[in-house]
Structure formats: C-alpha cells, structure tokens
Design brief:
This protein is mostly beta strands and 1011 residues long. Helix content is 9%, strand content 42%. The protein is built from eleven helices and 86 strands. Strands 35, 36, 37, 38, 42 and 44 form a six-stranded mixed beta sheet that branches. Strands 64, 65, 66, 68, 72 and 74 form a six-stranded mixed beta sheet that branches. Strands 1, 2, 3, 5 and 8 form a five-stranded antiparallel beta sheet that branches. Strand 50 and strand 51 form a beta hairpin. The radius of gyration is 53 Å and the shape is extended.
Length: 1011
C-alpha cells in the first residue's frame, strides 16, 4: 500500500508544482496540512503526564508525510486543497465507519518505567514477569489515515487500588488511571461509541499479579480483578469487525472477590499443645484420639464486600456457660476443658448462610451430630471434654453436612436467670425449665433481672421489661442483658416477659410475682403485666416457667397484676440513700426515710407521687456538701451517689393540679440538732453554711389548710451573720469584721477600749457581752450593737464574756479568745465564760469570735482562756514591756538592765518580742560604768586581754563588749567569776557558756539597748 502511495505521489508531483505556481501565496499557505504538536509518546518522555492528548512520534509523522496524497481534480469526488487539508487533520465523523476507523494504539504507564512506547492491535502493553504495576492507560483509535478519532469514540474506565472504579470514564487519547500516586490499575472496562460500536467489537484482556493472563472480555465487560488487590501488569487490546472469525474466545476475564462464598476460619487452644494453626471450611481443629482437650476457641468469618460476624459461647468445666462473645471463648492457662459450644451468624451473612458445626467428644463415643445457628453441640453435666471441632457455612436452607442426631447430650432450652437487689447486690443465679429469682422470705427488694436460655436449641430470644417505682416501665432487653445497671435505688414493681422466633412457636413463657404487701400474685403469660403498683410495695421474687405451647397455665391466673387506682389514695413515696448503707426500701406518707442515731448522712433521695392520674408530680432539689444547691428535678434522685457527699438541706414542691388540693410538708433530722420543724412548698428544710448533714427525712401531703403537726423547732437554720467592732487606743473605732474575724491589733501594744457585737439569724435570739475594764472591773451585760467598755476614757479592756440568747443558743455556740499584753493569744472559751486577764493589768489587744453549730467543738485549744496570774516575774515583765518599744534590724534584740545586772535576749519584732534568754550578768563598776543607750552588734572575736584572757566577745560600742568572765591568761582558770555585781571595766560580763551562746546565735546588726 505504501509503495503504491509513493508511486502515485511521484506521478502527481509535476501537477502539484504547477498548482503551486498558479495559486496565490496566501491561499497556498492556508492549504498546508497542520503539523500536530509534539507530545510524550517517545520512550524519552516516560513518566511525563503534562499533555494527555494523542500525538504522533517522529516515525509516525514521517509515515504521515508519506501517506499524503494530492486530490484528483478531474475526479467527481475531488475536493479543494482546503477541504483536503481538513479531511486529513480533523477527526472523522463516527457514522462513516469505512472512512474512519483504521487501527487501535495504546500505551501504559508502568511502575518504575513511566510511559512506554505505544503498541497496537493486540500487542502487549506493560510487562510480565517483572511484578510491575500498570498505573495508567491511554487508548487511541486512529482513522485509516492515522489521525485520531474524536474523544467520544471510546469509553475507558479503570478500577484503581484504593479508589475503586473511576467515577467517570475517559475518552479517546485521554489518561485512565493515575500517575505519580503509586496506585495500580486492577481492572478495566472498554467500549466503543456510536456507529463504531455497530460495526466493531473491542476486545481486551489483562495480565494480573498472582493470576497471569485472564480471559478476553469485550464491549464494556470488566477485565481484571476486584477485591483481591491484584495489580494489572500488562494489557492487550484488539478492535475487530462485528462477528469476526478471528475474534478471541471468551474466558474468565474478571474475578470479583465479593462474588465468592464466605470462609469460616477457626483455631483451637489445646491442653499441653497451645494454640494450633488456623483451619477453615469444615476441616478439623484440635487433636482427636488423644488425651488433650480443647480449652479455647477463636472463630472468624471473611466474606469480602459483605457484612457479618460470628458470635460464640462455650460451656467450660468448672465455670458453665460463658457469655456470647465475638472473640475468643473458653479459657487458656486454667486447665479447663470446653464441653459444649454454640455459634451463630450475625447481620448480612445470617440471611444468606447457616453455620453448621459438630464436636468430637471421646467420652461420648466420638463425633456427635451436626447442629446449626446457635444450637448447642457437645454436652453438659457429663464431664465430657471436646477434643475436635468442625465448622462449615452452608447456603441458607441447604442440607446439613451430615447426621444431626445426638448433637447435644443434656437438657436443652434451659432458662438461666440472675437477680439483683438494692445497691447492686447479687441475689444469685438459677437455672432450669422453672427458675425463681429473688426470695419470698427475704427482705431485699428486686431492682434488676437478667434472663437467658442455656443449651438453647430452638432459635429465638426471651425479652423482658420492668415497671419501676419513680420511673414506670423500662425498655425491653433480652437474652441475658440486665434490666438496669444504675444504682438509683428504684425497685421493681412489675414485669413482662415475651418469646420471639421459633421459641414463641414452641413454648409459652409463664411468670408470677411475689409482692411485699400482697404476697404471691397470679400467673401471667407471653407479655402480660405481672406485679403490683401499690404505693410503698415492691417485688421480692419472680418465678418463670417455660411450658410447651398451649399446655395451659401452671397455676391460678387471677390477680396477676394489681394496681391501686382509687381516687382517695394519693400518696407521696420516697426513698433514702444513706452513707455506708446505700439505698433503703421506699416509704410513704410521713414515715422515716434514712437513719437516726447512727451518724449516717443522707446522700440521695427519690420522691414521687402515687395514685394520681392528672399529670401532677413532685419537684425537688438538694443542697449538697461541696456543691451547694442543685437544680430542680422531677425525675431521678436528688443528691449524689458514690461521692460521699451529704445532703444538708431540701426543698420540695408540687407541680400540677394536685397543688390546688394539697400542700407538701417535709422536715429533716440534722446531725446535732435532731428533728427540725416542718417546711412547706419550696421552703428550705435543714441547714446551709454549717456543714451539718441531714440523716433522715419525713414527707407528707396535707390537705390545703391542714396542719402537718406541731413543732417548736425551726425548719431551716443558716449560719448566723456576726459583726464585731473594736475601739482601739489612738485609732478609734476600726472596721467591723465578720464571723471568725479578728478585731483589734497585734504587735502594736494598743489596748482595745470598747467592743460592739451584733448577730442576725434565721433563728430567733441575739448576742450579749460584758467587758472587764481597767479600774472598773466587770461591767453589766449589754447586747445587739451596744457598747461594752469605754470610749474617751483611755481605759483598757482586760477581759470579756460573750453569750447567745433565745433559740439561737439552742442551736449554736459562740466561741471567742483574747490577745493579751505579755501573753499573746490565750485559748478559746465559749458561752459566757471569761476570756482575757484580771488583776495583773494586761490589756486586751485583739479579739476573735466564732459562732458554730451546737456541739461542733472548739476552734482550738481551750486550756487557758483566762488568767489572773502574771505570765513572767516583775523584772522580766518590766524588761519585756521596755523591749516592745524597740525595733531591730534583725529578728533579735539584746536588752541590759545595768542597775539590776540583768540581760535579756529576745526574738521577734517590735511590739511582739519574746524571750530567748534571761540571765544575770555583771556590768561596769561605778568608776567605769557601762554606757546607756541604743547600740548595734558590730563585731565578734574569740579572745582578748593582757595579763588575763576573756573569751567569746561580741562588740556593740567601741571597746564595749559582751564577753566571758576574765581568766588567767591563756587558761580557763577563773580570775574573777562574780555575777550580778558592778565590777567590770564597762563591758558586760557573762559565764563563758552564755557569752558563747550570744557569740554563736545573735547576728551582726542586732539592736542592743542598755538602760
């Protein structure tokens, strides 16, 4: 063909030259073929994806030149040069199949290689045997003259790893897949469009990792794999006429993991062996014909593209039936064998498949029969360990894999029930066709139940719900779930039980209740109510029986459910949670809830109305230690559980029409106070600000205008508000302080001359006080803001007494103490006893007063609140009083009374010095007196002297020192050891140990005062 074209081109050359000479240059230029722009088809462009349009490589461009033809103007089909140019370079109309399609060209972008050179017509693009993924694909449908067809001539779609099928196919010459993302193409779908698809088929196949060449697909069929993560490594593509005789044979072109059946895998933990390898689909796990028992099992199901799981449970020696689990069942490391198993499928897989299984138990003769879908396999009560197991999935409704006889040895469809009382206490677990949960002879209310089937062979569930005091009916739970796990004190009053599935076709479930007030009630069946909603009663026991369908009741059915709906039976029901005891049974209508005399705080309270049908309810809130007032609640308890926090006050109110007929009254038993008075309708009952716990409560409904009962006690007590104000010498009246505050001064040697106290409280009563005044003695009692002491007389208060009056004195103690001259803070006293001093002339400088709950104890020591004996001997008191006038640059001070020959060392600060030492010393002789005045410690040394030696000197003024007595030179033999005499040369002499004490302890810059 190409040779013919060359000859034709040679023959036409003179005509072309002539036409060029006769044609204007502009027309000639416009008629030239347009050269396609350069692209990345060469191997050198591997990895590039900048231009995804189809272009010709150099070789193809050369061929295009060779294929160029000159139109025959004499031919009826001839066209102008402009038309010829358009016919060569523009995409061909797809409906002109014979004139359009010529060949298919395709290339792949391959891992580590990039874009390969295009190939065509069934050749291999990509690689084989090199494990390199195809990441992208371009396909070009070419016309007979080698130009690309339109972009809509073909649809190309790839399934990409991590992405799936591309959301939109791409067209002719465009890239399908990804570049630069390291993602493999896993499958492809190719289809022709328009008229091309009517005349041609497109055939293709892929070489997939782990598979090799798959079969041929055509016309939009998928080729490759899905769900296996197998990469496409090579591709072949052909375009053939419809029904071509050389068309490839169809084969296995596409594999979809989601279309494959599921696999059940399992492994066993065997005694003396450990975990064995995983087996699947009916193979045996375990070691049969040995002494090694299966102790643990792990199962899983794999169904690609679908949902579903396996639940398992095992009956274990020494333990019994375990709970259903999606993981491992049985035990490891405990030498306990599995004796029976149950398996069931969940979710999507359970609608399509049955799970069948059987066990090998040598003690029972070897392999037992096959069973399925949650039915037990093995035995119970025979001590027969399992040594082998087989598990298989069968399409829903398919035949059993083998004999189903004797798959389980023991009773099947056995009830198992557990019950719980207040505070989560377990009342035990029972099993059988009839079970009794709780105890008719016990005192514990039932709060929760859990019921299930053991050795279940008949499919289905048992569901149950409970009616609770303070809450009504709960939601339905089933198959061993607890009715409630909350520790909220709510007791069961009634129950309902139902069966579902095949169980409901095979059995009736009958049940009856033992009520704390009515005793045993009648039998109910299959979802009917059983129990009693009588105020203040609760269930103590529930009996359940499974009986063959339609067999009749096991006993009397009358009175299975009792309710109190009479109009005159409105009650308030309430329940206490106490420290160390938890929830107690509920009480009603004024009865005690909680404890008295045991110092156990009330921590939570349930309260509700019974016998009302108009929507009325009780709202409550509590003041809780460390929390304060909670929000109002009409459902659930107030207070806290498990935090150890006491309720200190309560408020209750009725919301609804009942509030027009009744008032709600309540009172509390508070620690230290006992029963307080009645509060009503949102009023507070109890205490706040006093840290006093409520221990019990009484609540009742009283008809409007009625009386709950007499009580002289207040219903609510809050911390009294105290104000204390002192008039201080030279300062006058100081700012008031509150409860526990300090009035006056310390460290300033200023006397309190007058006091005023006042108190306000929710409890009736007041405060009285009296002062012991200099030169006057005890004044009479005054009260409530009046002045005790004197103002403008310069007379110090030396002692005081304070007491409470009225009901305030019944519920509170007043504690107080005085800061006195020379003594500092004396100890606490209370309720009218004296605090301070008398007969020794010591001023009161500060006062502290606290009002505390009755019997709460003193704020501190009570050893010596008052004294009439001086703290120190007169000479020491004189020196201390003088010392308090001085300040020092250090926390030390030395005072010397040179006439009395006394030295005092003090610690502290001005106005509050205290003795560190008080010694006799020797001072200067009359002819060489010790100087008087204020000095400072300036130096220290070990010894000095000529003809004598003095040790441990401390310098305070020139050559004046504190030092030891003189010794014979260079010895410790005393030369003059006299003390308490005026014998020195002006220095202050001390025994050597005391001189050393000053030398060791008193720092430089310490003030020295000699007088």
């Amino acid at each position: 063909m190409k040779k013919t074209q060359r000859l034709l081109a040679t023959a036409m050359t003179p005509l072309l030259i002539l036409q060029c000479l006769l044609t204007p240059l502009s027309v000639w230029a416009d008629s030239l073929p347009v050269q396609p722009k350069s692209t990345d088809y060469s191997v050198n462009a591997a990895g590039s994806s900048e231009d995804e349009d189809f272009v010709l490589n150099d070789e193809q461009q050369g061929a295009e030149v060779e294929q160029s033809t000159v139109p025959d103007n004499d031919s009826p089909s001839s066209v102008s040069s402009e038309s010829a140019s358009n016919a060569t370079d523009s995409p061909k109309p797809e409906n002109d199949v014979s004139a359009v399609f010529g060949s298919v060209s395709y290339q792949t972008h391959v891992q580590d290689i990039g874009w390969q050179t295009p190939v065509s017509n069934g050749m291999t693009a990509g690689t084989t045997g090199r494990a390199k993924r195809v990441e992208a694909l371009k396909i070009n449908l070419l016309s007979q003259d080698g130009t690309p067809l339109g972009s809509d001539s073909i649809s190309v779609q790839s399934h990409i790893s991590g992405i799936g099928w591309e959301s939109q196919p791409v067209g002719n010459g465009q890239t399908s897949g990804t570049v630069g993302q390291s993602r493999a193409i896993e499958a492809i779908k190719l289809s022709l469009s328009g008229g091309l698809s009517e005349s041609y088929d497109i055939w293709y196949r892929v070489h997939s990792a782990n598979v090799g060449w798959l079969g041929w697909a055509s016309n939009g069929e998928p080729a490759g794999t899905q769900g296996y993560a197998y990469q496409v490594e090579a591709i072949q593509i052909k375009v053939l006429p419809k029904n071509a005789q050389d068309a490839p044979a169809r084969g296995d072109a596409f594999r979809d993991h989601s279309q494959e059946p599921p696999t059940v895998s399992y492994r066993s933990h065997v005694s003396n062996v450990g975990w064995m390898g995983v087996v699947a689909n009916g193979k045996t796990s375990g070691v049969i014909d040995s002494t090694n028992a299966i102790e643990g099992l792990s199962l899983s199901v794999n169904w690609y593209g679908h949902g579903g799981s396996i639940s398992s449970r095992a009956h274990v020696s020494g333990i019994g039936w375990q709970s259903w689990s999606s993981g491992t069942v049985g035990t490891t490391g405990q030498s306990r064998s599995i004796e029976a198993v149950q398996f069931k499928l969940n979710d999507e897989i359970s609608a399509t498949y049955d799970i069948w299984y059987r066990v090998y138990a040598p003690k029972l003769g070897g392999w037992l029969g096959w069973t399925s879908n949650g039915s037990p396999a093995g035995s119970v009560g025979k001590g027969a360990a399992i040594q082998g197991i087989q598990v298989l999935l069968v399409e829903k409704g398919g035949s059993a894999p083998g004999d189903t006889l004797n798959h389980f040895i023991g009773a099947t469809d056995v009830l198992s029930g557990s019950s719980y009382s207040l505070n989560g206490n377990s009342l035990g677990t029972v099993q059988g066709k009839t079970i009794l949960m709780g105890s008719e002879s016990g005192s514990e209310p039932l709060t929760s139940l859990s019921i299930s089937f053991d050795n279940q062979e008949t499919s289905g569930s048992i569901g149950y719900s409970g009616c609770y005091e303070f809450n009504g009916w709960s939601g339905v739970v089933s198959d061993g779930a607890a009715l409630t796990s909350k520790n909220d004190g709510r007791v069961l009053k009634a129950v309902r039980l139902t069966l579902t599935g095949d169980l409901s076709n095979a059995y009736d479930v009958w049940y009856r209740c033992f009520d704390s007030k009515k005793g045993w009630l009648g039998w109910a069946c299959n979802g009917a109510d059983a129990g009693a909603t009588i105020p203040g009663s609760f269930l103590k026991a529930v009996e359940v029986k499974i009986i063959g369908k339609g067999s009749g009741a096991p006993g009397v059915t009358d009175g299975a459910f009792v309710s109190d709906t009479s109009a005159d039976c409105t009650h308030v029901v309430y329940q206490a949670h106490s420290a160390n005891r938890g929830w107690s049974p509920s009480v009603l209508d004024g009865q005690d809830a909680g404890t008295t005399g045991k110092s156990l705080s009330l921590q939570a309270l349930n309260v509700s109305l019974a016998g009302v049908d108009d929507g009325s309810l009780i709202e409550a809130r509590a003041h809780v230690a460390n929390i304060g007032w909670q929000e109002w609640r009409s459902a659930g308890y107030v207070g806290t559980v498990g935090q150890g926090l006491a309720i200190q006050a309560l408020e209750l109110r009725i919301n609804g029409p009942l509030a027009n007929q009744y008032d709600i009254y309540y009172r509390v038993h508070s620690a230290g106070y006992g029963w307080l008075g009645w509060a009503s309708s949102s009023d507070s009952a109890g205490t706040t600000g006093l840290n006093i716990q409520i221990e019990a409560v009484q609540i009742k409904l009283v008809a409007k205008g009625g009386n709950p009962g007499s009580s002289s006690a207040p219903a609510f007590i809050s911390a009294p508000a105290l104000t204390l104000q002192a008039h201080v010498a030279t300062l006058g009246w100081m700012n008031p302080v509150g409860n526990g505050g300090v009035a006056g001064t310390t460290g300033r040697s200023l006397a309190i001359e007058a006091l005023k106290l006042n108190v306000s409280s929710s409890v009736s009563g007041g405060i009285e006080y009296s002062a012991h005044v200099q030169d006057v003695g005890w004044q009479g009692w005054t009260s409530n803001g009046n002045v005790a002491g004197t103002v403008g007389c310069a007379k110090r208060i030396e002692a005081l007494k304070i007491k409470l009056t009225g009901d305030l004195s019944n519920y509170f103690d007043v504690w107080y103490r005085a800061y006195c001259q020379d003594f500092g803070w004396l100890d606490w006293t209370s309720n009218g006893q004296p605090a301070g001093t008398s007969r020794i002339g010591c001023r009161v400088e500060s006062v502290q007063v606290k009002i505390a709950p009755k019997g709460a104890g003193a704020p501190g020591s009570t050893a010596r609140p008052f004294t009439d004996q001086p703290l120190l001997p007169a000479d020491m008191m004189t020196m201390l009083n003088r010392a308090n006038r001085y300040s020092s640059s250090t926390s030390w001070l030395i005072m010397v009374d040179r006439q009395a020959c006394r030295l005092g060392v003090f610690r502290g600060q001005r106005g509050s010095w205290s003795y560190a030492q008080y010694w006799t010393c020797s001072t200067g002789a009359p002819s060489t007196p010790t100087p008087t005045g204020e000095y400072t410690v300036t130096g220290k040394g070990y010894s000095f002297g000529h003809g004598y030696t003095c040790y441990y000197y401390t310098q305070f003024y020139g050559d004046y020192l504190f030092h030891s007595i003189p010794y014979y030179q260079g010895t410790f033999n005393p030369m003059d050891s006299r003390m308490g005499m005026h014998v020195s040369q002006g220095c202050v002499r001390l025994p050597i140990d005391r001189a050393k004490w000053i030398w060791d302890n008193v720092p430089l810059a310490t003030k020295v005062v000699i007088y």
